[in-house]
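Loading example: each entry is read as two labelled lines plus one structure line.
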Amino acid sequence: MGDTDDCTKAERTVFVTVGTTCFDALVKAADTQEFKSELSARGYTHLLFQIGRGSYIPTKSTGEDGSLVVDFFTFSSSIADNLRSASLVISHAGSGSIFETLRLRKPLIVVVNEDLMDNHQSELAEELAERKHLFCTLPQTLYQTIATMNLESLLPYRPGDAAPVAKLINRFLGFPDD
Amino acid sequence: MQIYRSREVGQSYITSVGTTLIAIAHALWIMIKIRPQVILCNGPGTRLPLCVIAFLFKLVGIRWSSTIYVESIARVRRLSLSGLLLYKLHMVDQFFVQWPQLQKIYPRSHYVGCLM
């Protein structure tokens, strides 16, 4: 029967996170039928939203009709586990979320919130996108990004090493090199 | 030990003057109580008062602390407001940036690479 196929289908979760911010535009953009169909077409099975201080509530779904399983929560003490079990992360442009995701070597789409005043955080997302470590987009172009993205084109991010800086500081303070 | 922020995210610049003064007074108290030999800072809103106090102490001849300022990794093309102030006024001993673009614009800074 066809049921056994559904049971053995591997879980592939898309995790959308807005951190401690309110970013309704992103949650809304990812909660459309069009977007969810595209995710299903690409083999994703679950869509999990972390909506932070947002006021827009996404529509939950159990996925019984073969569609995407959709769920959400507002905050958790650590999203590390959610990041770890995700197959794709869609995040606001917070540097914490970005680097936590990159260090876990997860494919990442960063969505910039243009409503933020003095949006310097987009600088980081744009620079890392230029270096091909992630995709950078806006809520209104999120669908196009998902539809056209090639995850193979992303380059892994090598985490920074603070040891040379520590050495530099030690030398400046007059400590002998070990 | 907690340190007061001079300005919260989104706080109006006008009220920030008041909170910055409070933070500077608190930083003064910390300096006198701890007498740090090294001040290493990164962190929006919290670094300016301490660096200002350490600089003022230096001006009057009290050289207790070396100050090392690390600009945020989120600053790629422009410095933060506190970073700009500390750089332009030569208020810290070492100014570290995490992206090469900033080092080119601010030649007295040290490019130390991404620290995350």
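Strands of chain B lie at 38-41, 66-70, 94-97, 110-111.
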